[in-house]
Amino acid sequence: MNASQTPPAQTSTGTRPTAATGPAPELATGPASGPVPEPGPRVVLITGASRGLGLELARALAAEGRQLVLTARNAAELAAVEAELAAVTKVVALAGSVVDDDHRERLAEAAAALGGAELLINNASTLTGYDLAGAALPRLADFPLTGLLETFEVNVLGPLALTQLVLPQLREHAGAVVNLSSDAAVEAYAGWGGYGASKAALDHASAVLAAEEPQLRVWAVDPGDMRTRMHQEAFPGEDISDRPLPHTVVPAFLALLRERPASGRYRAADLLAGPTADLLAGPTAESATSTTDEEHR
Ligand SMILES: NC(=O)c1ccc[n+]([C@@H]2O[C@H](COP(=O)([O-])OP(=O)(O)OC[C@H]3O[C@@H](n4cnc5c(N)ncnc54)[C@H](OP(=O)(O)O)[C@@H]3O)[C@@H](O)[C@H]2O)c1
């Protein structure tokens, strides 16, 4: 979110800006059937695809004819997604956690069996590493260390470990990695220290990976506030109906795939608002890598 554009709101976890609301942008997806579009990734691996943003990304990419490898822990919810999207495209859905070594291996193998992942979307995430059960986000002084450890395992170690496994496939296809970030990675909100620190770590790892793998695109993307289960858990008992639904930011991700701007950190709001020329100019100066667009091609 762009804090300068929106008034701050008092929350149970301190002053935290809310997302700008307004008319939802059109979802830029193609028809469910028809030719596979060119260019773009053919095989996409998405974590946290059973609900929220991950599900909406899976729906949009399926509609574009991409083949999908999807994961989340809840097997029943994931199976429902698989059943929905199998009518549209080839889908392999494997239930499990991104912190499980064997599960990550199975995900990478499934992508390889489809011909190799051309896009990895590290979307699965946790706020605290434990069930908040309606409680407020803990301050760092009180953060249970087991929860902090799980937060970093789910939000940083898991994505990096999965990236390691999939990198050979991504290199083969000059592919891309999308790591889901948050404004909490760059702003200091009381109660958001564990989650924010983990997202900041993922941002930095994304930037280093981009420098080390110049043939790839590595994008850290802040989607902005979205009306999802995670967001509701962060604001227990509060009305979050003013937050936009996750499908409204999907066109920002589709723009990244279509335009392939330089690796770096992007905000969905900027991608949705900016003309293509601005997008191709790359991310904000402090977050951009030194790699130019031309060098990637
Ligand atoms: N919502 C927001 O306002 C907001 C703002 C900024 C950034 N983000 C980021 O956007 C991304 C999507 O968030 P969301 O709001 O869509 O969340 P969400 O609705 O709670 O969905 C999270 C997804 O991740 C899965 N997941 C959680 N832990 C997992 C694990 N250990 N292994 C595998 N899958 C796991 C969940 O399924 P299971 O529980 O069944 O595993 C679910 O499919 C996250 O990276 C989040 O940090 C969200």
Automatic annotation (TrEMBL):
<feature type="region of interest" description="Disordered">
    <location>
        <begin position="277"/>
        <end position="297"/>
    </location>
</feature>
<feature type="compositionally biased region" description="Low complexity">
    <location>
        <begin position="11"/>
        <end position="25"/>
    </location>
</feature>
<feature type="compositionally biased region" description="Polar residues">
    <location>
        <begin position="1"/>
        <end position="10"/>
    </location>
</feature>
<dbReference type="InterPro" id="IPR036291">
    <property type="entry name" value="NAD(P)-bd_dom_sf"/>
</dbReference>
<dbReference type="Pfam" id="PF00106">
    <property type="entry name" value="adh_short"/>
</dbReference>
<feature type="region of interest" description="Disordered">
    <location>
        <begin position="1"/>
        <end position="42"/>
    </location>
</feature>
<dbReference type="InterPro" id="IPR002347">
    <property type="entry name" value="SDR_fam"/>
</dbReference>
<protein>
    <submittedName>
        <fullName>SDR family NAD(P)-dependent oxidoreductase</fullName>
    </submittedName>
</protein>
<comment type="similarity">
    <text>Belongs to the short-chain dehydrogenases/reductases (SDR) family.</text>
</comment>
